[in-house]
Design a protein that fits this description.
InterPro entries: RNaseH_sf (IPR036397). This is Transposable element Tc1 transposase. One of its GO terms (molecular function) is nucleic acid binding. This protein has 120 residues and is α+β, with helices and mostly antiparallel strands. The chain has 2 helices and 5 strands; from the N terminus they run βββαβαβ. It has a 3-stranded antiparallel beta sheet with strand order 1-2-3, with helices on one face. A two-stranded parallel ribbon has the order 4-5. The radius of gyration is 22 Å and the shape is elongated. The protein starts with a strand and ends with a strand.
């Protein structure tokens, strides 16, 4: 199984707006553009999949730190790995995000190393 998380911007805002107008059209509604305060927001999701199975797509409501990630691993990864690979022959792969390498996360994987193999 492989997992990753991604943040999606709800509105694209790079701060650059170009409007072509004539001098007398400055306040005309077609020459105005709305703005979004604080970038318009975003949504972060986490998911996992393999050739054989598809895990859930989890909405991450807070910052993805080591504590949040460790909860996701314990509540989502572990049960799915045990169900998909009941003999302990499964492999789990994650990227090198800082929260994945945190001490509490690595300790959790060490405590459950017989259930599946964590790829480095």
């Amino acid at each position: 199984m492989w997992s990753d998380e991604s943040r999606f911007q709800l509105h694209h805002t790079d701060g650059r707006v170009r409007i072509w107008r004539k001098q007398h059209e400055s306040m005309h509604p077609t020459c105005m553009s709305t703005t979004l305060q604080a970038g318009g927001g975003s949504v972060m999701v986490w998911g996992m999949f393999s050739w054989h199975d598809l895990g859930p797509l989890i909405h991450v409501e807070q910052c993805l730190n080591s504590t949040t990630y460790q909860s996701i691993v314990a509540d989502q990864v572990h049960p799915i790995m045990l169900m998909t690979y009941p003999n302990g022959g499964g492999f789990f792969q994650q990227d090198n995000a800082p929260c994945h390498g945190a001490h509490i996360v690595q300790e959790w994987f060490q405590e459950h190393e017989g259930d599946f193999t964590l790829l480095r």
